[in-house]
Design a protein that fits this description.
The protein has a 3-stranded antiparallel beta sheet. α1 packs across α2 and α3 (about 45-55) packs across α4 (about 60-70). It is built from 6 helices and 3 strands; from the N terminus they run βααββαααα. Helix content is about 75%, strand content about 5%. By secondary structure, it is mainly alpha-helical.
């Protein structure tokens, strides 16, 4: 299948100007240029463009991309596998970030929309805690009183 410069630009989500620039710097040449000057790209150029776009996504300069894709050691499959692993890691990182933000939103919403029921439950929990503390204090006082009583009895 072949693509005009406009079709390839639309397919890739880039401008025709970008494709012309890639042609000018010998990064991505069209399969051929028609007599009327129209650039035509084949599936091979589409695959190279995909690699260029992946590397651009990682912040690699066009000069570095040129060296990579024109290297005799360039392995397209290995490059795609590496891209996939990177994207998977990025997906996991973004997923974790989304969970954190989602939980934070829930916390803010709960704080802002705490119902009377929640306030009552909070009050009841506070009362229970206060009772426990009072019981602990009471037990502590009982133990102290017992110790004092034992000390007084032993001195006498």
């Amino acid at each position: 299948m072949s693509y005009s410069i406009g079709e390839l630009a639309k397919l890739a989500g880039i401008s025709t100007r970008t494709l012309r620039h890639y042609d000018a710097i010998d990064l991505l040449k069209p399969a051929y240029v028609e007599e009327n000057g129209y650039r035509v790209y084949s599936e091979d150029e589409v695959k190279v463009l995909q690699q260029i776009m992946f590397y651009r996504e990682f912040g690699i300069t066009l000069e570095e991309i040129y060296a990579i894709v024109n290297s005799s050691e360039f392995d397209r499959l290995k490059a795609l596998e590496t891209h996939y692993q990177h994207l998977k890691s990025e997906k996991d990182r973004i997923s974790q970030l989304m969970n954190t933000v989602e939980n934070t939103i829930k916390i803010y919403k709960e704080d802002l929309t705490m119902s009377k029921k929640n306030l009552k439950a909070l009050k009841n929990n506070k009362l229970k805690l206060m009772k426990k503390n009072m019981v602990k204090k009471s037990e502590k006082n009982t133990v102290m009183m017992s110790l004092i009583h034992q000390i007084k009895n032993s001195e006498i």
